[in-house]
Amino acid sequence: MNLNVNQKKAIHYVSGPCLILAGAGSGKTQVIIKKIIYLISQCHLNPNSIFAITFTNKAAKEMRNRISDKLSHNITKMITISTFHSLGLRIVKSELNALNICSNFSIFDEQDQITVLKDITKKNDRTFLKKVRIMISNWKNKLINSYNAKIRAKSIIEKKYCRYYELYEIYLKSCNILDFDDLIFLPTLLLKNNELLREKWQNKIKYLLVDEYQDTNFIQYELIKLLSKSNKNFTLVGDDDQSIYSWRGARLNNFSLLKLDYPELKIIKLEHNYRSSGRILKAANFLIENNPHFLQKKLFSNLEYGPIINIIPARNEEEEAILVSKKILNHKLINSSNYRDYSVLYRSNYQVKVFEKVLINFKIPYYVVTRSSFFSRPEIRDLLAYLKLMLNSNDDIAFLKIINRPSRGIGEKTLKKIKSWSIYKKISLFDASNSNELKSFLSSRSFNALQNFIILIKELKENIFIKPIMVLDNLISTIKYESWLLKNLKNFKLYKISLNNMHSLLNWISELIQSNKNKSNTLSDIIYQFILHNELEEENPEDDKLQLMTLHASKGLEFPYVFMIGMEEGILPHYSSLNNIDEERRLTYVGITRAKKELFFSYSKIRCQYGEVIYTVPSRFLLELPKNDLLWKKNNVQKNNFLKKI
Ligand SMILES: Nc1ncnc2c1ncn2[C@@H]1O[C@H](COP(=O)(O)OP(=O)(O)OP(=O)(O)O)[C@@H](O)[C@H]1O
C-alpha cells in the first residue's frame, strides 16, 4: 500500500507535539502503527519507552497484532499498548506505597458500585443509584475528590450527594478497593502532586501516542499533559466529527486546549478517504458541514461515485423491518454478496427487537452486537467473586455476591447481624463472619453454615497462587455449583451454555498463567484484566451473518452495505439529546461513513414508544443530505405530511 503525502508527513513528524486530524476512513490506524514502527526502526527509540493509548482493549490487541506482523514478537511485547484504564492500573500497581494502597486491592465494576451505593444511600431506586454513581464518576473525571466537591457544593441537595461521595470514598478505602474511575483519577492526582514520580514517568515515556483523541475527557487530557510534560513528544490522533461520547465526559474542547497549551503544535490533516464511494462521502460532507468545526476538513475519495442512496419509508416498525429484510435478500441475490457484507445500524438498543422477529421469519442469519460481555454473565461473575474474595478478604461486595451462591441457608437476618457486627468492630464481613463472638447472635445452623463457608475460602486460598486451576475445579465440585446451576436455570440449554462459559474461563486463566509464567502477581493481574475487559462481544468473522448494532458500537468498523434504520425525529436525533443536536449529527455521520459501497436509510411513519403510538416525521438529517443523491421510495407516505407529536 502506498502512503499518501499527508500520511507520510504524519508518520515522520516526531520532533514535538503533533495532532493528526484524521477523517473517517483516512487510514489513521495504519498511520499509528507505521509511526510506532518508524520510531523503533528509524528513530531507534527503545520499544520500552513507547506508549500507545487506544480507546478499547480490542483496538489495543489489534494494534499489537498488526505491529507484530512487521516487528519481532519480542520487540512488540516491549511496547506499551493499552487503554487509559490499563495504563492507570499499571501506574497504580507501580506506585502502591505512594498511593497508600495494599497490593491485594480489588477493582469494582458498575454493578458493584451500585450495590455499595444502595447501602450508603439506603435507597433501592436503581435510577437514583445510577445518578449518584454518575455524579461520583463525573467528580472523579474532573479530578475533584469528595472534600473539594463538598467545598464547592451550594444547595442542600448537592451537599447530600457530596456526603454520599465521601461515604463511598471511605468505604472503598477501608475495603482496599478501587473503582474504574480511580484507575485514572488516582494516578493523575499522584503525578500532579508528586514531582519525583512525575519525572520518573516522564523519563519512562519517550513517545506517547493516543488514538481516538476526540473521545478523551478532562482527566485523560490532564494525564496526557502530565506524562508528556518534559519532552512534549506525542502524537494524538482524532476526528472532531466523530466525537460521540460527550455523555461520558468526552470534550471537544480538548482540541482547542491543545492549541493553547502547545503553541508549537503541528497539525496534519488526513482527508483522503479510502473507504467509501464518492456519493456516500458527499452525503457525509454535506451533513457534517452543518456542525461547527475545530478546523475545516473535507474528505475526498478516488473511488467510483456509486449508486444512489435509497430512503425506504414504512407505515410502521414491523413494515420497516420487513422492507429492509426484503431489500437485503434481493440485494444479496443480485450482487452475489454475503450476509456479513451488510449491517443494520440504529440509535437505540430497543429498535432491534422488532427486526429480530422479522429476520427469524425470513430465515436471515444475523448477529446482534451487544455490550454484555462474557464477564458480565452470572456464572463468570460468581467465579470471579470467589477469586476476588480469596485474594482480598476485605472485598465485602464479593463476599455478599457469593455468600448464598449456591444457597447455604444464610438468610437476610443472618446477613444483617454479620453487617452490624462488622460495623461495630470496624472489620470486613469476612472477618466478622470469622469471629467466634458472632456465635451468640446466630442460630447454630446459620453459624455452622457461615463457618463452613469461611473454612472453604481459607482452604482454597492456601493454594490459589500455586495451583489456581485446581483450586477453581475444587471449588466448583465442593460447592456443587453445577447441580445448583441446573436447578436454578431450569433450562438445559442455558445450563450447557453456562458450563461452556465456565470451561472457557478456566482454559483462559490457565493459558494466561502459562504465558506469564515468570511474572509475579499473575493471578490478580489476570482478574484485573478480566474486570477491565467489558467490551463488545466479538463474532467469528468467518460466520456469514448480517450484523446489527447501535451507531455507537459501529465506530471504527466498515461494511460494504449499510442500512441506517429509524431515521426519524425523536429517534435520530434522539428526543433526549435535542439539546445536543451536533453530537446526534456526528453520530449520523459515523453511521454514514461506515458504508463502503452502498447506503440505505429507512424510517417508519408510526412508532410505538413506551406503550404509546406516535406519528413521526423523517429525521432532519435526511433533509440535510444532497437532494440529487437521494431516492425517496414511494410507500403512500408523503415525506412532509406527518403529524408531529413528539
Ligand atoms: N494509503 C492508503 N492506500 C490505500 N488504502 C488505504 C491507505 N490508507 C488506508 N487505507 C485503507 O483505508 C481503509 C480505512 O482505514 P482505517 O480503518 O485505518 O481508517 P480509520 O481512519 O481508522 O477510519 P475510521 O475513523 O472511520 O474508523 C482501510 O481499509 C485501509 O486499509
UniProtKB/TrEMBL annotation:
Keyword ATP-binding: yes
Domain UvrD-like helicase C-terminal, chain residue ranges per copy: 278-556
Sequence positions that bind ATP: A22, G23, A24, G25, S26, G27, K28, T29
Documented EC number(s): 5.6.2.4
Family annotation (InterPro entries): DExx_box_DNA_helicase_dom_sf (IPR013986), DNA_helicase_UvrD-like_C (IPR014017), DNA_helicase_UvrD/REP (IPR000212), P-loop_NTPase (IPR027417), UvrD-like_ATP-bd (IPR014016)
A Pfam family per the record: UvrD_C
GO MF term (any one): DNA binding
A GO CC term attached to the entry: cytosol
Reaction catalysis annotation: Couples ATP hydrolysis with the unwinding of duplex DNA by translocating in the 3'-5' direction; ATP + H2O = ADP + phosphate + H(+)
Swiss-Prot/TrEMBL keywords: ATP-binding, Helicase, Hydrolase, Isomerase, Nucleotide-binding
Keyword Chloroplast: no
Stated name of the protein: DNA 3'-5' helicase
Organism of derivation: Buchnera aphidicola subsp. Schlechtendalia chinensis
